Amino acid sequence: MNKIVIFGVGLIGGSLAIAIRQAHPAVEIVGLGRDGELLHAATELGVIDRTAASIAEAMQDADLVVIATPVAQIRAILQAITPHLQAHTIVTDVGSTKSDVLAYARQALPADYRGFVAGHPIAGAEKTGVTAARDGLFHHKHVVLTPDAHTSAQALQSVQSLWESAGAKVVCMSAQQHDAIFAAVSHLPHLLAFALVNELASRDNQVELFRFAASGFRDFTRIAGSSPEMWRDITLANRSALLAELDAYQKQLRQLQTLIEHQDSAGLLAMFEHASQARNTWAESLQSQ
Ligand SMILES: NC(=O)c1ccc[n+]([C@@H]2O[C@H](COP(=O)([O-])OP(=O)(O)OC[C@H]3O[C@@H](n4cnc5c(N)ncnc54)[C@H](O)[C@@H]3O)[C@@H](O)[C@H]2O)c1
Ligand SMILES: O=C(O)C(=O)C[C@]1(C(=O)O)C=C[C@@H](O)C=C1
Predict the structure, then answer these.
(1) Which one GO biological process term can you cite for this protein (predicted)?
(2) Is the CB of 235 under 6 A from ligand 1?
């Protein structure tokens, strides 16, 4: 590979650029974005080599295009690059939802184009922008790729190799399976954190509440500091899976409420023991990965 174009040089696009620079120092990295000042900062920091005067110029002889913007931007970017797409150019994305992105790709890209590989690195933070980008973000982390019948084996292999060179472990699954899994373990927890903080921050005594909030509150709500735009887009894109997850969670809350109302000591203990054991087993499994 000689030239990589990244749309959206923020936390994820910037961290991938840093990883690519380390693994493939000779590759030219061209960044595009909607905010000139941020792109200037990305160039000054040495995260990208340069920006481009136009999409046409950026796409000229590009080997790989990475779309690392909020997911609602991806359709328009695919439409904008399509007239400039060369046969050998591979296109991938890093969006947190995959069924919507695959549908956009089918609508926007030429019917005979087989170089689109939908992807999602399972690594990140509540911080946004290129100043939050960092070396090693993807080390030992999963990257999920969701190839479909239109994806060529060669494009899939190229994107897999790129992520492996960034230190990640690649797993393939369907977009539908991906969206169901991440609705449960990523998207729902973000909504719960936003909802809790929103509720407390709407109270008259919020100053007092936040004054005494400590590490339990910090751990539960860290992700409520995440990008509102990114999470609006994810929530709307994965709405049917998320509505099912919200139903299941509300059922748990209703169960909890009944146990408390009935002062059901054994029931509460059983529920907390089940959750505590599952959480500790999961945390231990992370150490052996
Ligand atoms: N933050 C995470 O933890 C995380 C983890 C994995 C995947 N993702 C996904 O990665 C993507 C980027 O997230 P991030 O955390 O890097 O966000 P970010 O806000 O740090 O970066 C997004 C960048 O995209 C730019 N941008 C927005 N619209 C654009 C457009 N139309 N054209 C070009 N550039 C545009 C923004 O200016 C910004 O620089 C999202 O799709 C998100 O769902 C995020
Ligand atoms: O660590 C965090 O702050 C994250 O929210 C990262 C996280 C996650 O839920 O685990 C968030 C969204 C991404 O799509 C992938 C990873």
Answers:
(1) tyrosine biosynthetic process
(2) no
Pocket test for ligand 2, best of 16, 94, 96 (most atoms within 8 A of CB): 96
> And the tokens for 160?
């897999």
> Does 34 contact ligand 1 (Cβ within 6 A)?
yes
Whether residue 80 contacts residue 106, with contact meaning beta carbons closer than 8 Å, is answered with no
Q: What is the chain's length?
A: 289
**Is 96 near ligand 1, meaning CB less than 6 Å away?**
yes
Question: Is the ipTM, as predicted for this complex, more than 0.95?
Answer: yes
**One domain for residues 131 and 269:** no
Distance from the CA of 125 to the center of ligand 2, in angstroms? 6
Domain boundary among 172, 205, 226: 172
Per-residue pLDDT tens over the stretch 77-107: 999 999 999 999 999 999 999 999 999 999 9
In the predicted model, is pLDDT for residue 242 greater than 90?
yes
Q: What is the pLDDT of residue 273?
A: 98
- Of the pLDDT bands very low, low, confident and very high (cuts 50, 70, 90), residue 287 is confident
Please return the burial class of 82, using the count of CB atoms within 10 Å of its CB with bins 0-12, 13-18 and 19+: middle
Q: How far is the CA of 220 from the centre of ligand 2 (A)?
A: 13
Q: Return the beta strands (E) in the chain as ranges.
A: 3-7, 28-32, 50-51, 64-67, 90-93, 116-117, 119-121, 142-145, 169-172
Q: Give the helix, strand, coil percentages of the chain, each rounded to 5.
A: 60, 10, 30
The CA dihedral of 186, 106, 143, 66, to the nearest 10 degrees, is -110
Q: How many domains does the chain have?
A: 2
Domain housing 19: 3-172
